[in-house]
Amino acid sequence: MNGILAVNHFLNQNKYSELHTHLVNSAKKQNIDLKIKTNLELATEKAECDFVLFWDKDISLARRLEKEHLPVFNSSKSIELCDNKASTYIELMGEVKQPKTIIAPKTFFKADFAQFVEDSVEILKLPVVFKECFGSFGEQVFLCKTKEEILSHITEKPFILQEFIEDSFGHDIRLEVVGNKVVSSVLRCNDADFRANVTNGGRMEKYTPTKEEEETALKACKILGLTFGGVDILDGNILCEVNSNAHIINIMNCTGIDIAPFIFDEIKSKI
Description:
Blueprint: E1 2-7, H1 14-29, E2 33-38, H2 39-44, E3 51-54, H3 59-67, E4 72-73, H4 76-83, H5 85-92, E5 101-103, H6 114-124, E6 128-132, E7 141-144, H7 147-153, E8 159-163, E9 171-178, E10 181-189, E11 203-206, H8 211-224, E12 228-234, E13 238-243, H9 249-255, H10 260-270
Parallel strand pairs: 1-2, 1-3, 3-4
Antiparallel strand pairs: 5-8, 6-7, 6-8, 9-10, 9-12, 10-11, 12-13
Helix pairs in contact: 3-4, 4-5
C-alpha cells in the first residue's frame, strides 16, 4: 500500500520533522510506503497513491485531492470544522457541554468592537477567554480580566469570547481518539498559566478518563467526522477544543502508547 503524508512546506521546525519521520517509520512497520509531500509540492503535482494522511490545515488542497478521488484522512470538512474554533462550537452546539461562547461578527478590517465587548461581558462576566478562531498550541488565546484587555487583542482576524471555567485553571485532559475508541489520554497541568498546553510550559501525566469523558470525546469526533483526533476536556466534562491533527509525540513519550499504528489500522480498514 502506498500513501502520501501531506505536510505544510512552511512548518519545518524540529518538532514537525520528528513527527513526520515517526509517521513514516510507523507506516513502514505496517507495510505501507508513506512518502512525505508538502503542500507546496502537491500544489503543482498530481498525487499518485492509495490514500493521503493529511497532517496539515490546507483545506483547499485537501478538498482538491478528494475531488481527484483520493481517500483523505482526516477529511477536508473535518479539518475545516476543527481548524475554526467558531465552527467547532457551532457544530457541537446542543450535542456536548461547552463553555458559553459568543462569536464575534465578521469584519473585513480592524473595527470598533466596543459595543460587542460590552454586550458579551454582560453575558459571560469577567474574566473571559479571548480566542482567535485560527491558532494552535494555545497561541492567540488570552485570559482577559478587563474589557480593555479584550479590546487590545482584537485585530481584523475572527475571534470568539468564552466563559472562563475557573475550576480548570491550568489543567485539562487530552483524549486521543482513533475510530470509535479512546486509545490514549493524559492530564495536562501548568502552574504558571491558565492554558495547559505543554508548549506553554505545561507538563503531562498518564490519566484514566471517566466513562462520561470518553463518551464526550467519541461523540465530538463522530459529529465532526474525524477518523482520528485529539479532544481537550475541562473540569465538569466540558469540551474545550478538538484537534484534527494533534501532535502525538509528547503523548507517546508520556504514556508509552504510540497512536500512529492505530491511525494506520483505521485507515486500512476504510480503503
